[in-house]
Structure formats: structure tokens, C-alpha cells
Amino acid sequence: MTPPTTPETTTPETSPAPTGAGLLQGRVAVITGGAQGLGLAMARSFAAAGADVVIGDLDGDRAQEAAASLGPDMLGMACDVVDDAQVQALLAAAQERTGHLDVMVNNAGITRDATMRTMSEDDFDQVISVHLKGCWNGTRRAAAVMREQRSGAIVNISSLSGKVGMVGQTNYSAAKAGIVGMTKAAAKEMAHHGVRVNAIQPGLIRSAMTEAMPQKAWDQKMAEIPMQRAGEPDEVAGVALFLASDLSSYMTGTVLEVTGGRFM
């Protein structure tokens, strides 16, 4: 059921997402899970800011289509973030374009929601592997390149679920909480190499998946949001652009919540 489109649940027309033109000019940015949803919104934002964007996604065809939609020089390729060799290949392809790697966004993820009583061990393992190991693969491989350059920004996508825990998401909440700890540890390791590592925790963001939830569940979540509306993908992308750019040059190990004030 699609949620009601009242003034309280739509983005005000007076607050468009900033384009950030020129903020990433001449830089190479890699985004995993970038063929749709938040990943694609971030890819568009980075491209508009001047970045040479490389999209990695489990679906290689969709990755290529998404990259083509950004411009003729953008690259999209298949990448299973759980497979370290594929992550290395994705980063190598990005480096081949300009000889450097400036931004890494670890965004790829899946959900396998169920209560602990009904969740299978495989569903737990898959979510932990994609989110946590996938983020680790991307972070450590990008960091290895960036430390040699003495520069770079890594942005890891966590979730509000990793802060408060959500019913039916023991796997997802654990993985997203783990990403926060990993981000802080990596930030401490890489700071003296000139590499910044930060994380974003989105809350209820409007998407095909969230809009398909039952009306009762939607209303319950809306009641928890002081701003009384869901967020838009571009609003997360704007924060990612901030963390990827020099605007956040003195920030590392930071976790930014994009939640409309929910569970503050």
C-alpha cells in the first residue's frame, strides 16, 4: 500500500537537494550497490559534482545501464562485494581511468527480515556477509590504495537499525551496528595516512520497498519522526557528497544520522 502523499510526508519544494557542482571535480568515486535506490542517488549526486563515477553492483547489466544514465564516460560493472577478488577488480578498473582513487562508498546490501524464531542461519549469514564483510572488503582495499596517495574519503552506509535495533532484523541490525564500529576503527588506523572514514545512518527513506510496507507499519514509523515525513534518496546523497568532499576535511570516524530526528 502506498503511503498518503500529504504535505507532511513529501519533501518541501522550498528545500531542493543541493547539486554540489564542482565539489568532486577531477576525482574518481566508486559506489557499490549503485545501480538503484540510494546507491544510484549518490552516483547521480557525485556525477553532478564533477566526479568520474564507477558503479559496482551484483547485477552487472543494471550497473552498466545506471552508469550510462550518468554520462558516456561513466563505468558500471558486476561486483559481488563478498568476493574480495571482485572488489579488487572494481577498484583496479577505477584506478585505470585516472591513476587514482579518491572516494569509496560501501553501500551494497540486502535484507532477509524475520524474527529470531523463524530466521534461518543462512539468512543471518547472508546479511552479515554482504553488509559487514562486504563493507570490510571495500574499506580495506580502498584504504590500501588511498594510503599510498596520502588522501581519500571512504563513506560507509550503516542504518538507524544499527543504532536502535529493529524487530525482525537481528541480522541487519547487527551488521549495520558492526559497520559503525568498523568505521571508527578504520578511521583511527587511517587518519595519519590522510584517509578519512565516515558513516551515514539513514532512517525511513522513501523507496519502492518502504512504500510497499503495510499502512499500519508506515503510520507507526511516521509517528516516530519529528519532521513528520519520510526522507528522500537525494537527502542521503547530499550527506554522502558532503562526506566525500573537502567540505568535511576535518571529519573522520563520524556517524551522521539522516533520520528526520527519529530516535535522536
List keywords for this structure.
9 helices; alpha/beta; seven-stranded parallel β-sheet; 264 residues; single chain
Question: How would you describe this protein?
Answer:
The chain has 264 residues and is α/β, with parallel strands linked by helices. Helix 1 packs across helix 9, helix 3 packs parallel to helix 4 and helix 4 (121-149) runs parallel beside helix 6. The chain has a single domain (21-258), classed as NAD(P)-binding Rossmann-like Domain (Rossmann fold). It has 9 helices and 7 strands; from the N terminus they run βαβαβαβαβααβαααβ. The chain has a 7-stranded parallel sheet with strand order 3-2-1-4-5-6-7, with helices on both faces. Residues 1-18 have low confidence and may be disordered. Belongs to the short-chain dehydrogenases/reductases (SDR) family. InterPro entries: KR_dom, NAD(P)-bd_dom_sf, Sc_DH/Rdtase_CS, SDR_fam. It is an enzyme of class 1 (oxidoreductase). Its EC number is 1.1.1.100.
Strand % is 5-15%
Tell me, rounded to a whole number, the average pLDDT: 92
Strand order of the largest sheet: 3-2-1-4-5-6-7
Task: Look up the CATH topology.
Answer: Rossmann fold
Relevant CATH superfamily: NAD(P)-binding Rossmann-like Domain
How many H/I helices?
Answer: 9
Question: Structural class, judged by helices and strands?
Answer: alpha/beta
Radius of gyration: 18 Å
Characterize the biggest β-sheet. Answer: 7 strands, parallel
Series of secondary-structure elements, N-terminal to C-terminal = EHEHEHEHEHHEHHHE
